[in-house]
Design brief:
It contains six helices and two strands, in the order ααααββαα. By secondary structure, the chain is mainly α. A two-stranded antiparallel ribbon has the order 1-2.
Length: 165
Amino acid sequence: MSTPPLYRLALTAFQDARARLDESLDPVIDSGRALVSAMEAAFWANALDLRLRDDDPSYKGLNGDGPDLIRALRFVRNRAAHQLPLVVETTGGIRAPLAFPLTVEPLVIRWVSAASLPPADERYEDPKGEALYVKRMEGREVSGVLKDVGRWLSTEQSRPGSLLN
């Protein structure tokens, strides 16, 4: 069975967005570009997940870290799409005020805390998604989360009968 064009497009678009995220993080961090790439990857991963849920009954029944992570990613994608908050932050580097002994941590782009997001629009509340965001994504490096999503999609692609293989 060959991968239908829609699935191939979404999977390739997710992978391309992840590659652009990695490019925006090396060698000089550009948090604006990282946010755009992260949200693009989130969009494509969610589009693919929702379509697979509609088209493949066996996919909908899968359990584990992958479905939870996709649900958490959907929560932050929805919050960003409907309310436009900054959902990533730069941490590390040299910041004022300086304290001695001086320790310089590498600059990292992380998912912000759920508490720092604006209150949810009542039309888009997702308590389960928010709980999974806190558990699986909050404070983690953006690139690490999206690598985990990529691994989940690769696992799904290798599953016998998957619409991705």
